[in-house]
Amino acid sequence: MTQQNVQLETVLQMSGFSFQYPMREKVLNDAGFYLQSGEKVALVGENGAGKTTLFHLITGLINRQSGELQCMGKTIESEADFVLLRQKIGLVFQDPDDQLFCPSVLEDVMFGPLNQGFSMDEAKRKAMRVLEQLKLGHLSENMASQLSGGEKRMVTLASVLVMEPQVLLLDEPTNALDVKAKARLLAVLQALPQSMLVISHDHEFLTALADRQISLENGKLQGHL
User: Fold this and answer.
1) Quick check: 105 and 139 in contact, CB under 8 A?
2) pLDDT tens column, 139-158
3) CA distance 124 to 167
């Protein structure tokens, strides 16, 4: 049987990105890349290379100094554009404690849907559905301080997935995870349909997860772009 080439949709594309912190060399210097529908891409580079900064630029947490960003074919320019973009792109921070701040796990996962305008009952149903999907339902009434590192990581993922994003940005998702927790996270991410851009120093994890790899070196994105 002849295999037909499938034209994938480009869900995220940046070109000509530059950014420089005061009194430092450029973190990004005319950098660009693309991410296609359903694709899982590894982003590697030395500590301090600017990988987390790139995530913050993509999501509008800090402002780019030059370059063009497109999400689902729409050029992202204003803060109103970024508000819409953040409904399509979910960012999982490197430190789960930066995202878990509510009295309970359930309330943390409900937070996003409530901000989207869902009722309390609707938000609770959505949150519990995702928690059960990730086998976290038994933790719904727990406080984040009662969770292990692996459980915190999975809850932060749940708090993003409940928003039903089309793209996931994951910043060092295996940090502080033991072998069992890492294997569980890998299995969950492999099964998800979302496009992903994943920062990690864990070569084994990235090899198992990613379709291709790009690296950030001297302000440039290199590799299979």
Assistant:
1) yes
2) 999 998 889 988 999 999 99
3) 23
Residue type at position 167? V
> Which of the 8 DSSP states describes residue 213?
E
What DSSP assignment string belongs to 4-72?
Answer: PP----EEEEEEEEEEE-TTS-EEEEEEEEEEETT-EEEEE--TTSSHHHHHHHHTTSS--SEEEEEET
Instruction: Give the tens place of pLDDT for each residue, 65-113.
Output: 999 999 999 999 999 999 999 999 999 999 999 999 999 999 999 999 9
Whether the predicted model's global pTM rises above the 0.85 cut: yes
Number of CB atoms found within 10 A of residue 48's CB: 10
Residue 143: burial class (beta carbons within 10 Å; 0-12, 13-18, 19+) = middle
Instruction: Give 108-115's long-range contacts (Cβ < 8 A, gap of 24+).
Output: 108/144, 108/155, 108/159, 109/155, 109/158, 109/159, 109/162, 110/162, 111/159, 112/159, 112/160, 112/162, 112/163, 113/162, 113/163
**Phi, psi (rounded to 5 degrees) for 200:** -165, 150
Amino acid in the structure at residue 22: P
Q: Cβ distance 221 to 33 under 8 Å?
A: yes
